[in-house]
Amino acid sequence: MAELTAIEFTVLMQILDRTVGWQNRSRTIGLSHLLNGGRHYAGIGHAVKKSSLMNALRSLEDRGIIERRRSSHHNQMKEYRVNLDWMPSGRSEEQDGCGDGWAPDEEGYAPSLYDLQNQST
Question: How far apart are the first and last CA of the chain?
Fold first, then answer.
């Protein structure tokens, strides 16, 4: 989060909610849906202008956080995919917080804050 502007973070959360939030790797989304929302989602147009949205999408894509492709089904929409393995430049996997008790267990689950607090006492 520290690597993103507020608008980039907001846009990324919208895309994450529509993709990973529904256990999908990618999703076809139109700009109007991001701005104005739809039947199932609120939009961000009340807080973000279209030009700011476009700049944020371009920045997220340039840094490899998201991938955008033309939709094969809708000419006004793009298919979005989030790079879940993205690391900020200059950081290694050892620096991503896993060294301080946040490492996932053998089943792939990270401990809860409650578990971490109780381990330290």
Answer: 29
